[in-house]
C-alpha cells in the first residue's frame, strides 16, 4: 500500500528542505537535528496525560568506567496493586547520538497510563563522545538499578520488561542478551520498536527504503560511524548487531514492531524469525503505510494511537 496520506506532506517538506551546511560542528549538527526532532514530536504527538507523575533519578554506572547517568520515572495514577506495579525500562531512539528522555516524555507517560507500568526512561550517554559499548553498559546498569530499587519505585521486581525504539531497540535487544549471558535477572518480555539490529546494513529494505522516507541509509551509515569505535570489526559484534547473536534461546518473550517504508524493516522481521526458531514466544507486526518513527505521530494518525496501544497492551498482558 502507499504511504499513509497524512505522512506524505511531511516527506515532501523534508525533501524540499535544504540540507544542513557541511561545515557544521558535531554540536551544531546535533542541536539542529534535535530541534527538528523536538518540533516533529510537538506537532504530531499527543501530550502527556496530566495524571502521570514524573521524577528524575541518578544511576551509578560502573562500566566501562565509573560514572553517573539520569533516568526519568513515570508513575501512572491510581492505587498500586499488592506487591507493586509492573515496570518497564525504556531506551529512547535517536541513532545513538541524538535525542533525550525529554523528547519522549509524551510517549513514556502515555505508555505508563495505558499499561499501568512504571516506566523508567534512561538518559544513556550518547556517541561519539561515548561510543559502543558505553550506551549499552548504561542500559545494563539502569536495568540492574531498577531491580535493586524496585521497592522504592513501587515496582514488582519479578514483573519488569525492557524495550526501546530504533537505536533504543538495538540497546534493549543487546541488553537482554547481556543480562542472560551474565546470569542477571532477565526481563519478563521486551518491546523492540523499529529496532536497528544489523549494523552491516545488508538487509533488502535498506536499499528499498533507503531514500525518501525520513530515515535514510546515509543517515544510518553516519550513525554507525559515530557509534562504533572500529566499524569494520564491530559491525558483526552481537552486542552491536543483535541479529548476529549466536544463541537466541532463553531470551524474553518479544514484541517486534516494524513499518512498511522503513530501511530497518527487514532486520526487525529477521530477528523475530530467529527468536521464533529458537523457541522464544514472539509477536511480530508490520505497520503498512508507515515510515520510521511514524508510531509517534499520535496526534496526526489514528493508526499511530493503535500502534502505541499495541505496545501498551503487550506489556499489560505479559506483566500481569
Walk me through the structure.
- The model has no long low-confidence stretch (mean pLDDT 97).
- The radius of gyration is 18 Å and the shape is globular.
- It has one domain: Rossmann fold (3-Layer(aba) Sandwich), CATH 3.40.50.1820.
- An eight-stranded mixed β-sheet has the order 1-2-4-3-5-6-7-8, with helices on both faces.
- Helix 3 (105-115) links the parallel strand 3 and strand 4.
- Helix content is 38%, strand content 21%.
- It starts with 7 loop residues before the first helix and ends with a helix.
- The chain has 320 residues and is an alpha/beta fold.
- It has helices at residues 8-16, 26-44, 105-115, 134-148, 150-153, 167-181, 204-208, 217-227, 231-234, 265-277, 302-318, and strands at 53-61, 67-75, 85-91, 118-123, 155-165, 189-193, 253-261, 282-291.
Outline:
The chain is an alpha/beta fold and 320 residues long. The chain has helices at residues 8-16, 26-44, 105-115, 134-148, 150-153, 167-181, 204-208, 217-227, 231-234, 265-277, 302-318; strands spanning 53-61, 67-75, 85-91, 118-123, 155-165, 189-193, 253-261, 282-291.
Amino acid at each position: 500500500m502507499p504511504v499513509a496520506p497524512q505522512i506524505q506532506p511531511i516527506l515532501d517538506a523534508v525533501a524540499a528542505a535544504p540540507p544542513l551546511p557541511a561545515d557544521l560542528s558535531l554540536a551544531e549538527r546535533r542541536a539542529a537535528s534535535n530541534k527538528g526532532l523536538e518540533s516533529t514530536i510537538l506537532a504530531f504527538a499527543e501530550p502527556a496525560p496530566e495524571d502521570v507523575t514524573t521524577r528524575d533519578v541518578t544511576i551509578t554506572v560502573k562500566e566501562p568506567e565509573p560514572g553517573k547517568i539520569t533516568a526519568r520515572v513515570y508513575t501512572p495514577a491510581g492505587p498500586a496493586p499488592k506487591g507493586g506495579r509492573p515496570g518497564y525500562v525504556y531506551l529512547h531512539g535517536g541513532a545513538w547520538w541524538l535525542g533525550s528522555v525529554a523528547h519522549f516524555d509524551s510517549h513514556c507517560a502515555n505508555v505508563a497510563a495505558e499499561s499501568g507500568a512504571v516506566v523508567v526512561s534512561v538518559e544513556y550517554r550518547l556517541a561519539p563522545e561515548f561510543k559502543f559499548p558505553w550506551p549499552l553498559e548504561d542500559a545494563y546498569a539502569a536495568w540492574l538499578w531498577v531491580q535493586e530499587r524496585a521497592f522504592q519505585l513501587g515496582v514488582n521486581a519479578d514483573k519488569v520488561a525492557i524495550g526501546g525504539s530504533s537505536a533504543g531497540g538495538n540497546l534493549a535487544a543487546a541488553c537482554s542478551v547481556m543480562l542472560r549471558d551474565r546470569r542477571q535477572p532477565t526481563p519478563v518480555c521486551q518491546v523492540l520498536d523499529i529496532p536497528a539490529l544489523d549494523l552491516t546494513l545488508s538487509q533488502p529494505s535498506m536499499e528499498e527504503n533507503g531514500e525518501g522516507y525520513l530515515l535514510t541509509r546515509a543517515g544510518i551509515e553516519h550513525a554507525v560511524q559515530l557509534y562504533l569505535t572500529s566499524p569494520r570489526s564491530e559491525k558483526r559484534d552481537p552486542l552491536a548487531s543483535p541479529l548476529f547473536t549466536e544463541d537466541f534461546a532463553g531470551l524474553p518473550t518479544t514484541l517486534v514492531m516494524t513499518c512498511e517504508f522503513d530501511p530497518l524493516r527487514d532486520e526487525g522481521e529477521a530477528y523475530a524469525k530467529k527468536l521464533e526458531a529458537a523457541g522464544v514466544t514472539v509477536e511480530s507486526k508490520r505497520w503498512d503505510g508507515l515510515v520510521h518513527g511514524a508510531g509517534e505521530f499520535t496526534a496526526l494518525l489514528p493508526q499511530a494511537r493503535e500502534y502505541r496501544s499495541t505496545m501498551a497492551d503487550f506489556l499489560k498482558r505479559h506483566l500481569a
